[in-house]
Design a protein that fits this description.
The complex is a heterotetramer of chains A (555), B (287), C (548) and D (339). By secondary structure, chain B is mostly helical. Chain B contains 11 helices and no strands. In chain C, the strands form 8 sheets. Chain C has a 7-stranded mixed sheet with strand order 9-10-11-2-12-22-13, with helices on one face. Classes of the chains: A alpha/beta (555), B mainly alpha (287), C alpha+beta (548), D mainly alpha (339). At the B-D interface, helix 1, helix 5, helix 6, helix 8 and helix 9 of B face helix 1, helix 2, helix 7, helix 8 and helix 9 of D.
């Protein structure tokens, strides 16, 4: 790769080939509101352009515009959109249909939702073939199996007859990519192709795209995740509020960002390097001195937790298998694992929302999970919870104020008057970075970060010693995630609360946790301090996880 | 675990859908309902006549300026009768739907909250109730109690209750899985508090729209009973009775049949349209 | 239920008064569809599609709906001519003993039922026994308590013995309920007798598609046509498809679209149209007209003055005209209709619409004060009339309109009339049959003879209560007078007593007249000689023929 | 206390992977079938029993009704008159005996004998069930076709078109049953003479009664399907299909339709049972035989065995319809096979 000069336009200089796709001054607006504001870029054969941005940056709209599916009510203008010499700005729907799937393959995020659940995987993969009149029914189905095979799907003939929900997330994503490349398009647009995937699977999917790239396909990768981008892209365009704020070769943008926003985004990514620092508000500023962990008696203790479910087929499945841990005052215990590892079930057992099949949970050394519900209830104020999807955890009829006050009344010091309740609720909201103005708001009207703050305020209200955080930042944009993580750290320092912190994101876990449990298939495969586990992983699974982890800077 | 979970297009589409519902159809529906409300509360505002006044000099007049819906065999002004009939017809619609809902909520919640044997028994009862021909239920009830407004309410109400009960049960099962229920439990709230504060109001909420739809359907339904001669006693101008009275004349004095029919259709249409708008808005608000 | 059974629950009778003005060119003794008879050529064969209204549960029984069908498949002993005289049918001749107690019938020889059984005197005697045993309760009530026995003297001679002289006997026997069935067939199961009665008539049952139609086919061996028949010999058409078309709109429409050739019960709203396009026939059936029974033993109508005020208090004539669109005649005589032999026209002049008179009577009866709604009160009690009516059966929509008009007029004089529609289930179950359940109730009972007076007004005795008297009006004098009529030696004498009885009923306002029960048909112009027979007003198809 | 949240764990996915048919699953299927069958029979007998007793609750004496019905009168009868009737129909026996007799008859396939038609109820119903089923099924199919066409053509189109579609559905769902029947009759049979007035059971005569039932039903089906269809068209897999170059019609037919019909399928199961007995108005207007009419007449004449028998048959059809609905569910969405 050659050096890049101070040009915003990737196509200049680097590649002698004619660009496959050229977009100039693209503007998209919905009902007068402009969401893409005059962006330009090119895509070249055998190369990958990444468009990075947070929600609302206009990256997805841009991707859809490239296949003429911006949506009804959209107003698209551009000086030029040219694919392989064809002017796309003036094409009829009929021409677009001929282009989609044949010349441009499109990979959406969330393979479960992006595949028709009611149809066979093979039919889904073969659909572009059928639509574009390729081959016969038999040859198409052979081709679909072949494509699945080439995507590394084991037993492709079997999988082709199954339906998407019968496949794992990784296989589904492969099927989706297989479908996108079925007609060997010159361009693949991949919109968040790895977002919902576990790290190990994520790595495999990125490898597949890299392979396509190596075969000369041009790729436009849409992502919110800079680490994913680092692994595949040749060039990066960073979008914010419909504009490209920075555009350049991947290493330059990621290592020497010129725009403050890019820098902030990079800073916000939690990782092993960010431990003990603040993620938000510019630069990795060191945290205030952290409160020491009280290594006396554990506030929460799990002993040999096991949970067995009997399925409708009368086969028992052990979801949590002999899990034990201790959580001390002021400490953060991270539980990391991929989907299905049993980490959420462990969290629900810890909260006594679910009874373990065997084993017990102690709160402050006292029996907790074995209590009858009536006696357990008064103790609940001592252990709070923050969920991944805060909106779902709020009664849709309740305002932020009511939610907070309801939680306050469950604490040790229930407010004695309406005025006091309101005052304390507002104080609590201020503590989590919200304020009086949010008191009467409906959670639905708040942003994702604000909602999670409300959830944290609610968890804090009864003044618990422990808060179970179940994937609390997984649904958030990276900059918001940084703020919420900072907030959690600040609160811990301030209040000395302990966190049982559950996440699939190794970076987040490393950033937050004092000690870590690595879970796989219901079992704890490795535990230890954060640094021990991450720097000197003992269990092969942990090692595999860490290898698969996409990094901004190659480790 | 997705960062950008809601596509902008989907959001816009939903907003657009709400806007569509708000436009002319909703406005017209509101107008009809407002008119209806006046007819129920103060029918004399809408017409100066009396629904029972006989005028044998002016029988079977076709619609004109002085009699916009025409007159019937006894010379009564059909428009006036339709206006005065609103009270009973709407009463039947509301009463029947209310009764159905009350039964449905009772049964639906019992079945939705109970487990094991109680749930199984209640579900079975609902099954039997469902398998029971609704028409027969009405026929038997009326055979027992004689035709009257109250009987029509009970007949239509009980007849439509099983359907709603199933809906309520489903709703309870659905809300039970909601995150906020678990959150409330995690906060230390007791079972009844959770049911009262969260489960009940949230399970009931979508039923408001369903109820609105039900009112329109009940009115239509009741008119069917009138056809079977199980309607209210004369000289009530209840709409089903008007429809029944006009049936023989459809080829000779069609307005006697067409006008009450249009009134029923219009009202049911307006109420249905409002109900569906409400339904969409509630759904939009819920998520 | 109502609409499907907008049935005429009771029989329609003889002595038909045809509205001759409606039937151009129709002679006094030619009540058939004579108008078009001259045009076109007569066709042998063909199928008549007849749109009837209600379907009975069984083809034979004591209900008018059954009599309609039975008239076409069963033959009776005697029949009635237009002038009310009795004519031969299965009986070619009969003799009445001087004491009026013994009737000797001579039967037409060689007649066979369609199952091959011989129709002899024993067969007829068996039928009498069958009726008396409850085989047909309407037949039974028509000859009780006069009938004593029937026995075969030889194959062609039958002797019927009475307990007391009963002048109307022969007239009563002309009703379709007295159709003679094969005794062999009667021994079959109830089901078979229900589905396929066997007679000697011009038609026999081919197939009954329940809920849809009854297919009658011609009896090719028919020999026993009545003296009133319009032609000699078996039926001219091959088949009659007797369709059950309950909906009046559909029924009339079927005729206008040509899907049917004849329909029964022409809707009054379509009457004018039907007159223009088809041959229409209307009968005013004899017997008790549709009149209002008033509960004389409980409630406000125990007071004769109040009953009379009720009769004066509404313009019944105008109401009937409006409700029935001027098609069905008003009848002010509550006990027998104008077409009944022995009708007393003087009685029909009583109780004209006179609100002053009504008010005066009510004042006199002590109902002097009025409440805020304008209804009269007495001792704090409102002048309330619970007016039950069999909705949809006796009282169709048109009848209901009449009642609603009357209700408004009665309100003017201070009656609070509460109209209570009865469902058919309620009607049949006797819910509105006891003195506690209503104050007034309209009803009719067709019968070819004024002897209906006895059936309805016979005073109750301890052993034999008369449940047919829905006014619960017991008057021994009335009972005596009617019996004198029944057992009179001559018609003139009988009619004198019957007239007297009508006067007593009217004077006491035991019932209030409303309108006549009628029976009507409309016939397509290419179909001729469909006629309504005299005893029941049943359509007769055996003489009918198409022209081309 | 067991709270709702503690009792169930929705977080655990039900693995649908191992569904290879095995001997064990075969046994399970048989057992499942037997349980279903037993429950179905229970429902049927319960429905018939409820009907049996409900009719005895109806005020008034059965023998009186029979006599009045036979004579076309409405009066009281003397004990002497009633006694033979009571004896003939067995009303003089204790109620419990009458009931046990009836129920044991049910298990022998004997639904009793009609009080009015004097023939086995099975025959009474047998003669009417075919036209009823034809009408009901034809109406259901027609309603489906109508509603799907409207859905495919109007959902998420230009605002005007969409509004027409949804208004059409609300309108048809609001049509009073008699009214629509008689209007169709007058317009198409009397004025235009396209169809016969006397429907009977012929094909041409079935069109209008079918429409009478199908139009409102199409409105209902359309309404529930429209909601689903709208939601489905927002799903990512629809976008995926479009990115493959699929046409709008193709997307609607191949993908969206299947996902949106489940609520309407459920509704159909109910509709089948309810139309079967509730078609009385259409039967009446168009002079069509059917068990709706028989039911109404039987209730009025207190023909207890006939009414109970019809309930049994309607409940049976309902149960079968719901089995078909379950089957349709699995055919449409194989995910539901596991549950």
């Amino acid at each position: 790769m050659t050096e890049v000069t101070a040009s915003e336009r990737v196509s200049l200089g680097t590649d002698p080939d004619v660009p496959l796709l050229a977009v100039e001054n693209l503007r998209v607006s919905f009902g007068g509101h402009e969401v893409v504001r005059g962006i330009s870029f090119t895509a070249h054969p055998g190369r990958c352009l990444a468009i990075v941005g947070e929600s609302g940056s206009g990256k997805s709209v841009t991707a859809r515009t490239l296949v003429g599916l911006t949506g009804s009510g959209a107003h698209v203008r551009a000086d030029r959109i040219e694919l392989d010499g064809i002017d796309l700005t003036t094409q009829s729907e009929r021409t677009w249909r001929a282009i989609r799937g044949r010349d441009i393959g499109f990979v959406l995020q969330d393979a479960l939702g992006s595949l028709d659940q009611l149809r066979r995987v093979g039919d889904e993969v073969a659909e572009p073939l059928r639509v574009h009149g390729w081959g016969t029914r038999a040859s198409r189905s052979r081709k679909a199996i072949e494509l699945l095979g080439s995507m590394g799907v084991p037993e492709p003939a079997v999988k082709a007859r199954q339906r998407p929900y019968e496949l794992s997330g990784g296989l589904r994503q492969r099927a989706l990519i297989a479908s996108a490349i079925a007609l060997d398009p010159k361009l693949i647009v991949a919109d968040e192709p790895t977002t919902a995937l576990d790290v190990t699977v994520q790595a495999q999917v990125l490898d597949l795209l890299a392979e396509a790239k190596a075969h000369g396909t041009s790729i436009i990768l849409i992502s919110h995740d800079l680490s994913v981008v680092a692994r595949l892209a040749d060039e990066v365009a960073v979008m914010r509020d419909g504009e490209v704020v920075e555009h350049g070769p991947v290493h330059q943008v990621l290592r020497r960002p010129r725009h403050a926003y890019t820098q902030a985004l990079l800073d916000a990514i939690p990782s092993e390097h960010t431990r003990g620092t603040r993620l938000s508000r510019g630069g990795n500023v060191p945290q205030r001195s952290r409160r020491p962990v009280d290594r006396g008696r554990p506030v929460l203790e799990a002993r040999h937790l096991t949970k067995v479910y009997r399925g409708p087929d009368r086969v028992d499945r052990t979801v949590v298998d002999d899990v034990s841990f201790e959580l001390f005052g002021g400490e953060t215990l991270g539980i990391v694992g991929e989907s299905g590892s049993g980490k959420t079930t462990t969290a629900r057992i810890a909260l006594s929302l679910l009874a373990p099949t065997s084993g017990e949970v102690l709160l402050h050394g006292e029996s907790w999970s074995t209590l009858p519900p009536r006696r357990r209830r008064p103790l609940r104020k001592r252990i709070g919870v923050v969920y991944q999807d805060p909106l779902n955890s709020f009664d849709p009829r309740w305002s932020v104020g009511r939610i907070t006050i309801d939680a306050l009344t469950m604490g040790n010091r229930p407010p004695s008057s309406r005025a006091e309740a309101r005052e304390r609720a507002v104080r609590l909201l201020e503590q989590v970075g919200l304020g009086d103005q949010h008191f009467d708001a409906a959670p639905l009207r708040l942003s994702g970060g604000q909602r999670q703050r409300v959830a944290i305020a609610r968890a804090l209200a009864p003044e618990p010693e422990v808060i179970v955080c179940d994937e609390p930042v997984s649904a958030l944009d990276v900059s918001i995630q940084a703020q919420v993580l900072d907030l959690l750290t600040d609160l811990q320092d301030e209040l000395g609360v302990s966190y049982l912190f559950i996440s699939h994101d190794l970076g987040v876990i490393h950033h937050m946790s004092d000690r870590i449990l690595v879970m796989k298939d219901g079992q704890v495969v490795e535990s230890g301090t954060a640094d021990d586990v991450f720097r000197r992983p003992q269990h092969p699974y942990t090692q595999r996880l860490l290898t698969a982890l996409p990094r901004l800077v190659p480790a | 675990m997705s960062a950008a979970s809601v596509s902008p297009a989907a959001t816009r589409a939903r907003l657009a859908a709400i806007r569509v519902q708000l436009r002319p159809a909703t406005a017209a529906s509101l107008l009809v309902v407002a008119f209806l409300a006046v007819a129920v509360i103060a029918p004399s505002v809408l017409t100066s006549g009396s629904p029972t006044t006989i005028d044998l000099q002016h029988t079977l007049l076709s619609p004109s300026f002085s009699h916009v819906f025409g007159t019937d065999d006894a010379g009564r002004d059909l428009y006036t009768r339709a206006v005065y009939g609103a009270r009973e017809s709407l009463g039947i619609g509301l009463g029947a739907t209310g009764l159905a809902m009350a039964i449905a909520i009772l049964l639906g919640f019992a079945a939705g909250l109970a487990r094991g044997i109680v749930d199984a028994v209640l579900t079975r009862i609902l099954e039997v109730a469902f398998a029971f021909p609704v028409l027969l239920l009405a026929l038997l009830l009326i055979a027992i109690r004689g035709p009257s407004v109250a009987t029509e309410i009970v007949a239509v109400g009980i007849g439509s209750a099983p359907g709603y009960a199933r809906m309520v049960r489903g709703q309870v099962l659905h809300v039970r899985q909601a995150g906020y229920i678990e959150s409330a439990v995690a906060l230390g709230h007791g079972r009844w508090v959770v049911i009262r504060q969260h489960l009940f109001p949230n399970a009931i909420r979508p039923l408001v729209a369903v109820m609105t739809l039900g009112v329109g359907q009940s009115i239509v339904w009741a008119s069917g009973l009138a056809f079977l001669g199980l309607g209210v006693a004369p000289p009530s101008p209840e709409w089903g009775a008007l429809l029944d009275a006009g049936r023989d004349s459809i080829t000779t004095s069609p307005w006697l049949e067409i006008m009450p029919g249009l009134v029923i259709v219009l009202v049911a249409l307006a109420v249905t349209s409002l109900g569906r708008t409400l339904q969409h808005r509630l759904e939009g608000a819920a998520r | 239920m109502t609409r499907f059974t907008r049935a005429r629950l009771v029989a329609v009778g003889s002595g038909a008064l045809l509205f001759s003005s409606l039937l151009a060119g129709c002679g006094a003794d030619a009540p058939a569809t004579g108008a078009g008879a001259g045009t076109g050529t007569k066709v042998q064969g063909g199928t008549i599609i007849y749109g009837h209204e209600q379907e009975p549960p069984c083809l034979y029984g004591g209900w008018l709906q059954q009599a309609y069908i039975d008239r076409n498949i069963l033959d009776s002993l005697v029949t009635e001519a237009d002038d009310g005289s009795i004519k031969p049918w299965l009986a070619t001749d009969w003799k009445v003993s001087d004491d009026g107690l013994t009737y000797t019938f001579t039967l037409k020889p060689g007649v066979k039922f369609t199952d091959g059984t011989a129709l002899d005197a024993q067969a007829v005697a068996d039928n009498f026994a069958y009726w008396e045993k409850g085989g047909n309760s309407t037949a039974q009530v028509s000859i009780d308590p006069y009938f004593a026995s029937a026995k075969a003297l030889d194959t062609t001679h039958l002797q019927v013995t009475l307990n007391k002289p009963y002048l109307p006997l022969l007239t009563m026997l002309t009703q379709g309920y007295f159709g003679i069935q094969s005794p062999t067939a009667l021994k079959r199961s109830d089901k078979e007798n229900c589905e396929q009665p066997i007679g000697s008539g011009a038609f026999k049952v081919k197939e009954w598609k329940h809920g849809q139609e009854l297919i009658l086919v011609k009896n090719p061996d028919y020999t026993s046509w009545p003296a009133t028949a319009k032609h000699q010999g078996p039926a001219i058409v091959d088949e009659v498809d007797w369709k059950f078309l309950l909906d009046p709109v559909a029924r009339y429409a079927s005729l206008t679209t040509g899907e049917s050739n004849v329909i029964y019960d022409v809707p009054t709203v379509n009457w004018k149209d039907a007159q223009a396009k088809f041959e229409v026939q209307q009968y005013i059936t004899p017997g008790k007209p549709v009149s209002i029974y008033m509960n004389t033993i409980k409630g406000v109508f125990t007071d004769k003055l109040v009953r009379q005020a009720f009769a004066y208090g509404a313009d019944r004539k105008s109401a009937v005209e409006a409700g029935f669109h001027g098609v069905i005649p008003y009848e002010n005589n509550p006990s027998v209709s104008q077409s009944t032999p022995g009708y007393n026209p003087e009685v029909a002049k009583a109780y004209p619409y006179d609100t002053a008179k009504a008010n005066q009577l009510l004042d006199q009866a002590g109902w002097t004060t009025r409440d805020s709604a304008g209804y009269r009160t007495k001792d704090g009690k409102q002048l309330e009339v619970r007016f039950a009516f069999p909705a949809g059966s006796v009282m169709t929509g048109e009848g209901s309109t009449v009642l609603q008009i009357l209700q408004q007029q009665w309100k003017q004089v201070g009656f609070n009339v509460e109209l209570i529609p009865e469902t058919q289930a309620e009607t049949f179950s006797g819910k509105y049959s006891s003195p506690d359940s209503y104050d007034a109730q309209p009803w009719y009972w067709t019968s070819p003879s004024a002897a209906i007076l006895w059936i309805v007004w016979r005073p109750s005795t301890k052993d034999s209560p008369n449940y047919n008297n829905s006014s619960f009006y017991d008057n021994d004098e009335l009972g005596t007078v009617i019996q004198q009529g029944n057992s009179a030696a001559t018609t003139e004498e009988a009619n004198k007593f019957y007239g007297q009885a009508q006067q007593i009923i009217q004077d006491n306002a035991a019932a209030v007249g409303l309108y006549t029960q009628t029976s009507s048909i409309a016939v397509a112009k290419n179909l001729h000689d469909v006629w309504l027979e005299k005893s029941q007003g049943e359509p007769v198809f055996s003489d009918a023929y198409f022209t081309k | 206390m067991t709270t709702a949240a503690e009792a169930a764990d929705p977080a655990v996915p039900i693995p649908a992977l191992s569904r290879a048919p095995s001997a064990r699953s075969g046994v399970r299927a048989v057992r499942w079938g037997l349980v279903k069958l037993a429950l179905a029979i229970l429902v049927l007998v319960a429905a018939a029993s409820v009907t049996f007793f409900a009719q005895l609750l109806v005020p008034g004496d059965r023998a009186t009704t029979i006599l009045n019905q036979q004579t076309g009168r409405a009066q009281l009868w003397s004990a002497a008159d009633l006694a033979p009737v009571n004896h003939q129909f067995g009303f003089d026996r204790p109620l419990a005996v009458q009931y046990v007799d009836y129920v044991s008859g049910l298990f022998r396939g004997d639904l009793g004998t009609s009080y009015t038609q004097h023939k086995p109820v099975t025959e009474v119903i047998g003669a009417q069930i075919v036209p009823s089923l034809v009408l009901t099924v034809a109406a259901l199919v027609t309603a489906w076709v109508l509603s799907l066409v409207v859905i495919l053509v109007t959902v998420k189109r230009r605002r005007f078109v969409t509004a027409i579609g949804s208004t059409w559905e609300a309108l048809t769902a609001s049509l009073p049953p008699y009214w629509i029947g008689v209007v169709l009759l007058v317009v198409f049979a009397v004025e235009l003479r396209v169809f016969p007035v006397i429907g009977g059971t012929g094909v041409a005569g079935t069109v209008l009664p079918v429409l009478t039932l199908a139009l409102p039903l199409a409105g209902f089906l359309g309404q529930v399907t429209r909601d689903e269809f709208e939601k489905v068209l927002d799903q990512p897999f629809i976008t995926t299909a479009r990115t493959r170059g699929m046409s709008d019609t193709g997307v609607r037919l191949k993908h969206a339709l299947r996902h949106s019909v489940l609520p309407a399928v459920t509704l159909s199961g109910w509709a089948l049972g309810s139309l079967l007995s509730g078609a009385v108005i259409a039967e009446n207007v168009f002079g069509r035989p059917g068990i709706g009419q028989v039911l109404v007449v039987a209730v009025n004449t207190r023909d207890v065995p006939t009414v109970s028998g019809i309930v049994l048959v309607v409940a049976g059809v309902y149960v079968i319809a719901n089995l078909l609905v379950d089957l349709a569910y699995v055919l449409i969405d194989s995910r539901l096979r596991a549950s």
